[in-house]
Amino acid sequence: MMIDITQGVTAANGYRAGGVAAGISKPNKKDIALVINDGPLRNAAAVFTTNRFAAAPVGWSRHAIADGQLRAVVLNSGGANACTGAQGDADARAMAQATADAIGCGIDDVGVASTGLIGQLLPMPVVVAGIDEAARTATTSGGADAAQAIMTTDTVSKQAAYTSEQGWSVGGMAKGAGMLAPALATMLVVVTTDAQLSSAEAGSRLRMATSLSFERADADGCMSTNDTVILLANGASGVTPDLDEFQSALTAVCTSLAKQLIADAEGAEHSITVTVSSAASEQDALEVARAIARSNLFKCAIAGNDPNWGRVLASMGTTRASFDPDQVEVDFNGVTLFSHGELGAPRDQVDLHPYDVDVTIALNAGDATATIWTSDLTHGYVSENSDYSS
Amino acid sequence: MMIDITQGVTAANGYRAGGVAAGISKPNKKDIALVINDGPLRNAAAVFTTNRFAAAPVGWSRHAIADGQLRAVVLNSGGANACTGAQGDADARAMAQATADAIGCGIDDVGVASTGLIGQLLPMPVVVAGIDEAARTATTSGGADAAQAIMTTDTVSKQAAYTSEQGWSVGGMAKGAGMLAPALATMLVVVTTDAQLSSAEAGSRLRMATSLSFERADADGCMSTNDTVILLANGASGVTPDLDEFQSALTAVCTSLAKQLIADAEGAEHSITVTVSSAASEQDALEVARAIARSNLFKCAIAGNDPNWGRVLASMGTTRASFDPDQVEVDFNGVTLFSHGELGAPRDQVDLHPYDVDVTIALNAGDATATIWTSDLTHGYVSENSDYSS
User: Are residues A376 and A283 part of one domain?
Assistant: First the structure.
């Protein structure tokens, strides 16, 4: 599928977006994003973090989307509004109210998402002024500004869009960088479409797409308090899509965004694709791939351009997946380093200098395959995460 | 209990030990350790890694100890002999044979343990020569040499011993540094005692001691292929110990060794004690403490002297332990930063410059408590683990 990574939430018709620098935590950094759905439909669906310390905006958005309808989504960087108590709840609600006032809708039609440091209250006068400005300046070509406004430690903004020959489009934006782990990868994502979909259809398609994309990205195994993926569907194209094509397009857009997140994970010097094949079940393949993707030792080895397959086996050996250790094969960038209990090619035959690294495991236990995308563990990761709040 | 960290496997009577530089992977680095039990009893017990890619020496030692009897343990650094196929199995057996020949016992009376890089065959002529020399030079005061010979990226050797007023002693040595995780922390440990214990008693006491010590140390969440903890009991004191005192002493020796391992974990700049109290069960307390101890983001924050309690909550929020998020309290070095859903003291009231960091969580859900020891995630960890095999 042709995915255009220069367009995002305003690729589809009937949406306006904007991003402004309100000054929440840094001067001149865009930090308020607004996505407005101008209809005709207001159908919406969302997937949220399963973290038990879900942030105040997650609690608000769960409430707002309960009826399957949203008119707008307001997002901020510069503060996660998580673990902020009753005042945090009030502030998330106040962000919805400010947005509702600015664009003329009900408070319950506004989703809210926040990202940044946990445990700090938002400077609400600044936030409200920023929301007003974003509402005034939102345009049908403002997707890129919105994508920039949700960046935190991201070094580039992330967008992806697809246009069907049937006349509808789907496009989205994402931010990630740290606390990237499945269920969900830490991220804020808004995807819009002008295809005609019910809220229920939007929900089932979104859950399928996230399970195959964001939930297979795992940068550092840390699950965020703020993960939010929202899909808006306004039917502005007047086209009821072929649902198979729509599902493929939505999954492709989400996969593009997920891979962009991993490629720009904090400190990443390699993007690593861990594929486990010939597993007894997809669940087994995922368990093994995740165990590898979460091994700090493996991820440090990749940072050092070291095809340390022993660390791959050591992490696989902690899983309960069905396989015979003597039947396993491990390949790095196409070179077989271990196979059926015996040493393979010398490790110096593997060149790990390219940014993209493929680690492929054959379990020889069945027909299932799954892939997890991760990044290496570098000095940059340590630097970014030991300096984050100071 | 008074633990002496200057003595190890030769603290108890009836043991000889030695450590020699055979030249397995580096010149002039002690790399073969030998612990010889001169009786009268040969009772022994062991706990091994549960990794499914257990190394060849683990397979051999499981076999050798099946009858509850060992005459000696031979250990090497400089190569893990893991994932080395049939040749690796033959090499582990050859190490036992060389030891048996050198000290005059049966091959099945020799335990073998190896540590170092996975996936590389040992240079057996060098290893066998080293075993011969270690057997010739082992003495009743050679514990310190043996402790040095099992070091890999350890910066200091680890020993601990206890002497009872009843006239018996227990002492041990350990190596760790990387791949430290529960079940077991990656480590080689030999503990000796001259108390009179049956093999069965030694086994049950050892399992209890490891569950409260090594299995509560978690430096990097990575489980090794080579973890081995062996207890030898020769009864040379002629004293049948009070079993409560013996259990306490064995646990204290193992706890001292476990804490020494964490304090010297790869790149560690802080030793972190994560204590979870008022949990509904000990299992809940352990689950929460482990989730925190495995959060890379939390561990990077500590490296940066940042009391980032938000990352503590985010990791707790991924667990299934019984607690109400609104009832939780988080303290760093005695300062309450979050309590009952609301912000506590400003984070700048916490001084994280001292090496030891105490993170205490009250779940307010019951009466159980558990502690996990971990270390921070530093540039040193990344450096050591991206350069390890190169």
Answer: yes
CB contact set of A211 (below 8 Å; sequence gap of 6+): none
Same domain (yes/no): B221, B338 = no
The parent domain of residue A158 ranges over 15-263
Is residue A142 located within the same domain as residue A89? yes
pLDDT digits (tens, 9 = 90+) for B111-122: 999 998 888 899
B359 lies in some domain: yes
Q: Are residues B190 and B338 in the same domain?
A: no
The rounded Cα B162 to chain-centroid distance in angstroms is: 17
Is any Cβ of chain A less than 8 angstroms from the Cβ of B388? Answer: yes
Q: With b meaning 16 or more CB within 10 Å and e meaning fewer, what string describes B183-209?
A: bbbbbbbbbbbbbbbebebbbebbbeb
Q: Confirm or reject contact between A133 and chain B (CB < 8 A).
A: no
Residue A183: the pLDDT is 38
Q: What is the pLDDT of residue B220?
A: 66
Minimal C-alpha gap between B106 and chain A (Å): 29
B186 is catalytic: yes
Residue A178: Cβ within 10 Å count? 23
Q: Compute CA distances B235 → A93, B16, B167, B205, whole Å.
A: 71, 15, 11, 15
* B308 close to A (CB below 8 A): yes
Helices (H), chain A: 56-64, 85-103, 124-137, 143-149, 199-212, 243-263, 282-293, 296-303, 309-316, 379-386
Task: Write out pLDDT tens, residues B219-245.
Answer: 666 677 888 999 999 999 999 999 999
CA–CA distances in Å: residue A317 to residues A314, B54, B78, B91: 5, 8, 22, 22
Write the burial class of residue A390 (CB in 10 Å: 0-12 exposed, 13-18 middle, 19+ buried): exposed
Say whether the ipTM exceeds 0.95: no
Sign of the CA dihedral running A294, A296, A298, A304: positive
Residue A1 included in any domain: no
Contact B119, B152 (CB under 8 A): no
Q: What is the pLDDT of residue B222?
A: 65
- Is residue A216 included in any domain, yes or no? yes
CATH number at residue A340: 3.10.20.340
Among B263, B294, B310, which residue terminates a domain?
B263
- The domain boundary residue, chosen from B263, B286, B309: B263
Residue A3 lies in a domain: no
B388 has pLDDT over 70? no
Residues B210, B353, single domain; the answer is no
How far apart are the C-alpha atoms of B132 and A354, rounded to whole Å?
A: 47
pLDDT category of residue A185 using cuts at 50, 70 and 90: very low
Kindly state whether residues B244 and B315 are assigned to the same domain.
Answer: no
For residue A21, the domain's CATH number is: 3.60.70.12
| Maximum Cα–Cα distance across chain A | 68
- Asked if B388 and A294 come within 8 Å (Cβ–Cβ), the reply is no
Number of domains in chain B: 2
Task: Please tell me the distance from the alpha carbon of residue B211 to that of residue B218, in angstroms, as a whole number.
Answer: 13
What dihedral angle (degrees, nearest 10) is formed by the CA atoms of B2, B253, B217, B154? Answer: 100
Q: What is the pTM of this model?
A: 0.84
> Which of B52, B297, B386 has its CB closest to that of A220?
B297
Q: Are residues A247 and A356 in the same domain?
A: no
Report residue B247 as tokens.
């259990």
The residues, any chain, with a CB within 8 Å of residue A245's CB and separated by 6 or more, are A164, A166
Distance from CA of B195 to the nearest CA of A (A): 35
Answer yes or no: are the C-beta atoms of B45 and B203 closer than 8 Å.
Answer: yes
- Residue A223 structure tokens: 């699950």
B253 plus B280 within the same structural domain: no
Q: Which of A161, A159, A142 is nearest to A250 (CA)?
A: A161
Nearest to A222 among B304, B315, B385 (CB): B315
Cα–Cα dist A229/A226, whole Å = 10
| Helix, strand, or coil (residue A384) | helix
A27: number of Cβ within 10 Å: 6
